[in-house]
Design goal:
It contains 11 helices and 9 strands. The chain is of the alpha/beta class.
Length: 282
C-alpha cells in the first residue's frame, strides 16, 4: 500500500493504472475507520484491480463547527487497517490540498437533498457533493463504494453524479452492525459507557417496528419508534421519517410504494447517531 498526500501524485498513479486497462475502485471516508469501512474496502478490493481509499475530514459538510472539531481522527490506525485489507493507495491530503481555493459551487440536488438531513443540517449535502465530486474528478474510478447507513447520502451522490455526467457505478453496501445491533459509526467512540449501553435500543426499536407495522399505520409506526427511543435516558429523536426508498419523500400509506425505508437520527447525549431500516424492498 502506498500513502499519497497530493492530488498530482494520485492522478499520476491512477492515470497509469487506467492506461494499463485496470479497473479502479474508490472508497471515500473521513477516517476513524471501523469494520464497516473495511467491509467496503474489502468489497472494492475484490471487484477492482486498484483500490483507492481517501481519508479526509471534509470541513465543507459540517454545519456545526464543534462537530468538526470533535470528529475523531486516527490516521495511523486507519492506514494499518487499510494495508491489512488490501488497499492499493490511501489518499490523505491536507485541507489546503483539496481546497486550494474556496469551493463556491452550489449544487441543485433536487428533492432527495431537501428532506431529513437536508432540513436539519443546512448545507451538509452541498458539502458532500463538493468533496465527492472532487474525489470523482481526481480518481475517475470505475466504481465507488458507500455504506447504506448513510442512506440519504447515497441518493444525493447519485443525483450529483448524474448532474455532472460522471460515468461511475455507485455501489451501496449493507449496514454493518455490532453484535448488539448498533450500526457501526466513527461517532460511537464519543459515547460514554452508559450511552454506549443504551445505543443499541435504536436498532432494536427499528427491528421491532417492522413487525409492529404489519397491523399499524405509517403514522402509528412512526409514533411507536419515537416514543420508545425517547423513553431511553439521554436519547432524543431528532426525526424519524418513513419514506419512499428512491425519492426519499415521506409516505402516508404502506401502499404508497414498493420500496419503503425508515430513516432516523437520534441524539444520544451530544452525539448524533443515524440508522435506517427497510420495511419493504422491490
Amino acid at each position: 500500500m502506498e500513502r499519497i498526500t497530493t492530488v498530482a501524485a494520485l492522478q499520476e498513479l491512477v492515470s497509469k493504472a487506467r492506461g494499463e486497462g485496470k479497473k479502479i475502485g474508490l472508497v471515500p471516508t473521513m477516517g476513524a475507520l471501523h469494520v464497516g469501512h473495511i467491509s467496503l474496502v474489502e468489497r472494492c478490493v475484490a471487484e477492482n484491480d486498484i483500490t483507492v481509499v481517501s481519508v479526509f475530514v471534509n470541513p465543507t459538510q459540517f454545519n456545526d463547527k464543534r462537530d468538526l472539531e470533535l470528529y475523531p481522527r486516527t490516521p495511523e490506525a486507519d492506514c494499518a487497517m487499510l494495508e491489512k485489507a488490501g488497499c492499493t493507495y490511501v489518499f490523505t491530503p491536507s485541507v489546503e490540498e483539496v481546497y486550494p481555493e474556496p469551493d463556491t459551487r452550489v449544487f441543485q440536488l433536487g428533492a432527495v437533498a431537501e428532506v431529513m438531513e437536508g432540513r436539519y443540517r443546512p448545507g451538509h449535502f452541498n458539502g458532500v457533493a463538493q468533496i465527492v465530486s472532487k474525489l470523482f474528478a481526481m480518481v475517475a474510478p470505475h466504481r465507488a463504494y458507500f455504506g447504506e447507513k448513510d442512506f440519504q447520502q447515497i441518493a444525493v451522490i447519485r443525483a450529483m453524479a448524474a448532474q455532472l455526467n460522471f460515468d461511475i457505478e455507485i455501489i451501496a453496501c449493507p449496514i454493518v452492525r455490532e453484535a448488539d445491533g448498533l450500526a457501526l459509526s466513527s461517532r460511537n467512540t464519543r459515547l460514554t459507557a452508559e450511552q454506549r449501553r443504551n445505543a443499541p435500543r435504536i436498532a432494536e426499536t427499528l427491528f421491532k417496528s417492522v413487525t409492529f407495522a404489519h397491523d399499524h399505520t405509517v403514522e402509528q409506526t412512526i409514533q411507536f419508534v419515537v416514543d420508545a427511543i425517547n423513553a431511553v435516558p439521554e436519547m432524543r429523536v431528532e426525526y424519524y421519517e418513513i419514506v419512499d426508498g428512491l425519492s426519499l419523500q415521506p409516505i402516508k400509506e404502506w401502499s404508497d410504494s414498493n420500496y419503503i425505508v425508515g430513516c432516523i437520527t437520534v441524539y444520544n447525549g451530544e452525539v448524533r447517531l443515524i440508522d435506517n431500516i427497510a420495511y419493504r424492498r422491490p
